[in-house]
Amino acid sequence: MAQVSLRPQKTAMLVAQRIVADINRRGNRAGDRLPPEKAMLDTYEVGRGTLRESLRFLELQGVLSLKPGPGGGPVVQRPDATSLATALTLLLQFENAPFRTVAEARAGLEPMMARLAAQRMSDEQLAELKSSVDRMRENLDDQGVFLTENRRFHDLVARGSGNAMFGYLVDALLRVLDSSAIGVDYPEARRGAVHKAHLRVYQALAERSPEASETAMAGHLDEYLRYAERKFPEALAAPVVWGSA
């Protein structure tokens, strides 16, 4: 059987990996400056073009920001789900996948996250979740606040699962499935229904019931899908397109 040869990684990518390893080794935090260009050229023994390609790649991934001018240079940042959302969007676009794909993924994943969150969420996280539910209730006449709290609620449950992968994945999916971008509208009556669903999920989590939390979240997302299918089928059927948000 013939052995498949793997394509060697570009030098710039290997250097980028070394830079990240050194950031971790030194314990650098967001806001810390990395060594100047001359020192990095000596450390990694590459040309200026290769080093700058490595740094640019890390900037695009949200690991660094590159400050221009005297006293500038690479500064450590904390990456978020932006790059993951972009990668998912591009993958889905080349599959000609509709927005329904993302909604169905959430419906499959988030009930499991709620089950874990019931067991792992801290009291502080529960208090923050309660504040999101309360703020949504107090601002049902404001769709902007509603959309902000809707995202915040689902982010908090995902983070509360204690699984970092779920936290970043839901953040990325919500960036792709931005309701205002795909044309799903929420009249005030619908916002009230969403608030009640969030309250049910919160109450189940506060009771530390994995089964009730999973059921409440599944019911909430199923209700959303049925609403969108009934009122905005063309939005769910629209293909995911990078830059549509």
TrEMBL record:
Domain HTH gntR-type: residue ranges: 9-79
TM helices/strands, residue ranges: none
UniProt KW DNA-binding keyword: yes
Keywords: DNA-binding, Transcription, Transcription regulation
PROSITE patterns to which the protein is assigned, alphabetical: HTH_GNTR
Keyword DNA-binding belongs to the record: yes
SMART domains the UniProt entry points to: FCD, HTH_GNTR
Pfam families assigned: FCD, GntR
Any one GO molecular function term: DNA-binding transcription factor activity
PANTHER family per record: TRANSCRIPTIONAL REGULATOR, GNTR FAMILY (PTHR43537), UXU OPERON TRANSCRIPTIONAL REGULATOR (PTHR43537:SF5)
Protein name: HTH gntR-type domain-containing protein
